[in-house]
Amino acid sequence: MRSGFVTLVGRPNVGKSTLVNQIVGSKVTITSDKPQTTRQQIRGVLHRPTAQIVLVDTPGVTRPRSALGDRLAHTAEEALAGVDVVMLVIDATARIGAGDRAVAARVLPAKERALLVLNKVDLAAPAQIAAQLTVAAEWDLAGYFPVSALTGDGVDVLVEELERMMPEGPAFYPDDQVRDLPEEFWVAELVREQLLAETRDELPHSIACRVTEWEWPRIRCEIVVERDSQKGIVIGKGGAVLRKVGQAARAQLPAGAFLELHVTVEKDWQRRPDRVRRMGY
Question: What domains does the chain contain, in order, with CATH numbers?
Fold first, then answer.
């Protein structure tokens, strides 16, 4: 038996969360095209006949501009310590730039156990993929894998290499567990995912969600924004947005769940370290 931990790092929106879900074969982390969708270390567990691979999804690495940004950068940095493999995820459709190089610099001290994963190859031309891999070759990592997290193309080959790199050891999680998250956190994340989809570009960074009461089947989830005007956007005309978000999140919960959503205003919460901690980040 082989088992170990694999951390995924990269700039925002390179597809780390989608890749985790594709590898595990189940939804273990929410996805969105918005930066900072992932705000915690989230672990997905892949069970194979002779191996267990624990994938650690991390926030996208970018220059912090708030207390929340500082916390997310620290979370991503922490995830690099003590793992068996690091996957540096790069977007095949975007030129390798200063942001990618900054992330790579953090990975290079452990390059003998680091893999370059070039994601979104389904959207890139062959010449573009070849050019990206040529540039990335200067980092001299342990392996290079072009994949599509969306379609699954190339993912099987990547997983085979991850299994080969795992050390011998017992499984960390039972066979029926595919994610390592408290249920309360998972429900709050499902609500936030739907809010990101519904509100689009209007207020993604300003939204936080937390479960404040759990008396099954009743769940009370609080949605926190930074301005009174944002509260109106989240609720929508006649409560339409909030109702749609609740229905979509509830559809992903066990039958019989009653999800109660409340919207509150915490002025400038993401810029205040004490409030960021209160939100669970």
Answer: 2-165 (3.40.50.300), 182-278 (3.30.300.20)
